[in-house]
Amino acid sequence: MKKLFYVVILLALLLTACKPTPVATDAPVATDAPPVTEPTVKQLTILWAEWDPANYLQEIGNLYEKETGIKVNVVQEPWGSFYDLMASQWAAKSDTYDMVVGDSQWTGQGATQGHYVNLTDFMKSNGIDQTVTEATLKYYGEYPVGSGTYWAYPTEGDAVGWAYRKDLFEDPAEMDAFKAKYGYELATPETWAELRDIAEFFTRPDNPKNGVKYGVGVYTQKDYDGMIMGYENVMFSWGADWFDPETFEVEGVVNSDKAVEALTFYRELYKFAPPGTSNAFYAEMNDAFISGQAAMIMNYFAFFPSLANPGVNPFAENTGFFAGPKGPDGQAFVALGGQGLSVLAYTSPERQQASMEFIKWFSQERIQKEWAKVGGYTCNKAVLASDEFLQNTPYNQAFSDSMQMVKDFWNIPVFGQMLEPVNRILHPYIVDGQGDPKALLDQLAVEQRQILVDNGILK
Amino acid sequence: MANILSSGKIGKKHLSERGLVNLFIWPTLILLILVNIFPLFYSIFLSFNNYSVIGNKLPIWVGFQNFKDLLTNEQVWNYFAITGRYALLSVVLQTVLGFGLAMLIREKFKGSGIITTLILIPMMLSPVVVGLFWKLMFNPGYGIFNYLISWLGIPLTTDWLAKGDLALWAIVLVDVWMWTPFVMLLVLSGLSAIPEYLYEAAAIDRASSWFQFWHITLPQVAPLVLIAVLFRSIEAFKSFDLAMGLTGGGPGAATRLISIDIYTRAFLGQFKTGQASALAVIVLVVIIAISNLYITALNKAKES
User: What domains are defined for chain B?
Assistant: First the structure.
């Protein structure tokens, strides 16, 4: 009898687990904006990663509360668990958060799996789509690319840029020595080849200049998208790509001759990086620079405020910034960072409406000016072009230049599966020279093609 | 008094013995069912389905397809091999060193209490914290590890965590540092339980130290050593946090233990929940099989 009772309990639990949930199709889910109602919402909650821009957004939220009486609470989650937290909220269809400032690559999942509210009509009818730059709207807001369907308001523009030690670059003795060795002036690099020369020049572990032993810091982290964000700066600038944007074909694209050259070059750059940066991302890059180990580092612009802060970076006075250099054919692309603000589909229509009211307010030029003033990287066209913005910080000019050259990787729902083979196959080559670059990229093309075929994206 | 209790009126206000038992057992049982039993059965159910937890779609029954895909995947076998190598190296080294340490501090001496406590500290730390600290110590730029072993002729610039052939050894080393005290503790308790008269009798018979060790110490301690090996093997086979903190499974997938592979499939943008559940079930079966082997050996050791 007892055994029967336990079996009944277990069966009941299993049946509960199998209870049907709403079915979504692969096509973007039409969760259009709800009808306008009287605002009854007194508080909005936004989820974002734990970093300075989230503090800036909280300041903007405080301004919104002053103007409207609606409190805005920006909840910050450490980067390492940000995506997992969001995914668990999606899985639970939780209404804890009204909005999320999510990564660009999430857009496919948010759109096709019904997690995000479709903002197309809202953004078009309010002219919001016209206020931001085309690239940011395309990469942060649109899915599928080119469809004119928007799922996020481009909020924090970002790209991979460069920080360098001006005291080294402008040292007369170093300039003479560099010119004698390479035959041209030492200056911020215009091309990747120049960047490589400079990295090599300042790599002197046994004879450091001003304590700097290594030439360059580059992304190598293999857990998620870190190494990929570093390598693709080179790959895009070499004229290679992850896939054919028209057909999604990877064979002959991700393993093209140009991609092989780019991968070989990225491996070459790592040889001039501080030892121990074999699994390094944004935090390790800033650490390498602040600790005086590297003459140059790549990093997202969002992490540059601390490098310009003398309280954090002892070399702040001697720190300069530049945008990504050109490839061998003169093309220059930089990896896109940054995020868009999306309304989550699991809150009530009233809360969704209140969230859109916030976005409408936030997208105004006067608020975007304020957003830029407190430290946010606006995507607003007019603010980006203003002298006030360009002179606001030592890195805003480089940021503005970079945002003209941004390019992103996959934002399809299976982006996570596409990341895995890249990390597994390319990481040992980049940090330890294991394998032949052509063979590795061929293997990558085969595996990524299979993922796309298995998921119905390629035939 | 006995009359009052047995009269019924007052007795009804008290819980019967059976009721009291139920009151204590059921909350625990319900918690166990909700937190352990249900997730176990649900993940077994999901392992037979094509399902993504964030996909907003019902699980699709695919039978044994997930198991077939996993067991015919060379990479998965490679991750099992890496896990096996890691578990074998770690457990063997921990057992040998733990046994040795226990023999050394078996006899009481001045300060032996403090020394024993100090030796036990590593196993009291969080594996993630240990991983992150050792990551700093392995750093070829400023870490102390290369400096300490430089007398072996190993270059100071050796990047242990970036080289496929060294990274697994680095994790084994840290695991041994952390868990050898656990083996030592169990062996020590076994040693202290050996009756002194056995050694006295052996001494009277002029038995050598080696004879005493082989015929008295080892057989007496064997059950506890086997328990230590059982615990450590299970732990090593499902180890996750230490390797994740040190290498994240890298370089490439050189130290991707099977639990890290489950995590990679279940999260990190992939969310292949059905497949990850199937792999977890396979690991569970392997661990149960290994445990049964040890338990059989343990029973034999007890009988002898």
Answer: 70-303 (1.10.3720.10)
